[in-house]
Amino acid sequence: MHLTPALKEAYSKEHLTAREAQVKAEWIAWGPIVFQVSRLMKKFGILEMLRNSKNGMKEAEIAKEARISGYAAKVLLEASLSIGTVLIDPETDRYTLSKTGWCFLTDPAVNVNAEFCHDVNYEGWFHLEESLKEGRPAGLEHFGPWSTVYEGLSQLPPQVQKSWFGFDHFYSDSSFQQALELVLANKPKTLLDVGGNTGRWALQCVAFDKDVKVTIVDLPQQLEMMRRETAGKPGADRIDGYKMNLLDASQSFPTDKYYDIIWMSQFLDCFGEDEIVSIVSRAAKIMDDNSRLYIMETLWDRQRFETAAFCLTMTSLYFTAMANGNSKMYHSDDLKRLVETAGLEIETIHDDLGYGHSIMVCKKS
Ligand SMILES: C[S@@+](CC[C@H](N)C(=O)[O-])C[C@H]1O[C@@H](n2cnc3c(N)ncnc32)[C@H](O)[C@@H]1O
Fold first, then answer.
1. Rounded to whole angstroms, what are the CA distances from 63 to 42, 216, 320?
2. What is the pLDDT along the chain (365 residues), one digit of tens a residue?
3. pLDDT number for residue 315
4. Which of 265, 270, 322 to mutate for ligand 1's pocket (most ligand atoms within 8 Å of CB)?
5. Cβ of 194 less than 6 Å from ligand 1
6. Among 70, 189, 296, 305, which residue's beta carbon has the most beta carbons within 10 A?
7. How far is the CA of 97 from the centre of ligand 1 (A)?
8. Which of 218, 221, 353, when mutated, tests ligand 1's pocket best, judged by the most ligand atoms within 8 Å of its CB?
């Protein structure tokens, strides 16, 4: 199995003492409440007031400023001492923010992940067992009757939508600039953006290159959102939409024109293995020796940092319980095998874009 050096070191040996292992096991046991307490410490403004306080704050002051009862402040603060997001001075009983509390409050990736975990996944993950056994996103039921989250994306409650798009955009936005330079380097005339969503990438393409034309392939509901989002923006007249449900194997990619580049960003992770083979095989049908398929994914085995791989292997369970029941954040060996089964070969892989994307450049084999 391919693993970066950091992951090889972390995953192939036991690193913890027995005592540390027992502590970690307790963290797992209490994981849900560790999360909820920390989330509320932030939501109630307690972490922020501690960061802003000069000499720390007493429990009663915190309760007053957060407008919660003394009891509520006490249970949250005491749990937070154990979690490690706050510290206390036993001489003065004043609370201050710890380094972990500071990261939880201010780190943008942590914030996006926490909101995604709470708003999109928290209740649904209770149904992970059914999802795993039945191969369907059993946790999606409390949002609506759809078989995948993508069908319901435009109808999710506003806060859920905000966190879903916040998560999606946070990661892809971080890589788009580097990706644009790579993908548009040879001045392609036409680009097919498969799963182009609200048109963020397409808008950046048409701004980057004043000649390139982009066609976005997506579900009809998403194309409507895309049209609203791109309307009146510079270059929007060079962005087209093409409705397609990629899960329907009888539907083909557009053949109205020749596409120099087919672009799939954070897209194939929305599909199971057989579906990926079907989608990439259909893409191969509209390619010739000069066209290239660029697949941008966060491949967990190619991460330089263990924390990044941790976030990705955890994200896989969003796909299991909420998104579709059969997809995940892929390992590069698996994605390579699927692309090759579909009749393409990998020309190069570019790693370490943005927060940990890789781009697989594929051509006809
Ligand atoms: C995770 S988003 C990626 C969005 C964008 N490419 C990015 O990098 O941020 C996946 C996209 O695939 C689309 N999608 C999912 N299932 C689809 C299907 N069956 N047919 C067509 N598009 C689909 C979704 O609507 C969504 O726009």
1. 14, 51, 39
2. 999 999 999 999 999 999 999 999 999 999 999 999 999 999 999 999 999 999 999 999 999 999 999 999 999 999 999 999 999 999 999 999 999 999 999 999 999 999 999 999 999 999 999 999 999 999 999 899 999 999 999 899 999 999 999 999 999 899 999 999 999 999 999 999 999 999 999 999 999 999 999 999 999 999 999 999 999 999 999 999 999 999 999 999 999 999 999 999 999 999 999 999 999 999 999 999 999 999 999 999 999 999 999 999 999 999 999 999 999 999 999 999 999 999 999 999 999 999 999 999 999 99
3. 98
4. 270
5. no
6. 296
7. 39
8. 218
CA distance 129 to 140: 13
Q: Are residues 79 and 206 in the same domain?
A: no
Ligand 1 contact via 362 beta carbon (within 6 Å): no
The string of DSSP letters for 271-291 reads: S-HHHHHHHHHHHHHT--TT-
Query: In terms of domains, do 121 and 66 share one?
Result: no
Start-to-end Cα distance in the chain: 24
Nearest protein CA to atom 12 of ligand 1, as residue = 195
Q: Are residues 334 and 353 in the same domain?
A: yes
Q: Is 150 in the pocket of ligand 1 (CB under 6 A)?
A: yes
- The residue out of 106, 141, 157 marking a domain boundary is 106
Residues 84 and 156 both lie in one domain: no
Residue 171 CA: which ligand 1 atom is closest? 9
- pLDDT confidence of residue 242: 97
Same domain, 327 and 344: yes
Q: Is the CB of 267 under 6 A from ligand 1?
A: yes
How many independent structural domains does the chain possess? 2
Q: Are residues 85 and 126 in the same domain?
A: no
96-98-100-103 Cα dihedral, nearest 10 degrees: 70
Predicted pLDDT at 250 = 97
Written as six digits, the tokens of 200 are 């963020």
Tell me the residue ranges of DSSP E strands in 165-246.
190-194, 213-218, 239-243
> 294: domain CATH number?
3.40.50.150
Same domain for 99 and 120? no
Q: Are residues 129 and 257 in the same domain?
A: yes
> The domain containing residue 55 runs over which residues?
5-106
Region label for 294, one of left (φ > 0), alpha (ψ between -120 and 50) or beta (otherwise): beta
Burial of residue 35 (CB within 10 Å: 0-12, 13-18, 19+) is: middle
**242 C-alpha to ligand 1 centroid (Å):** 13
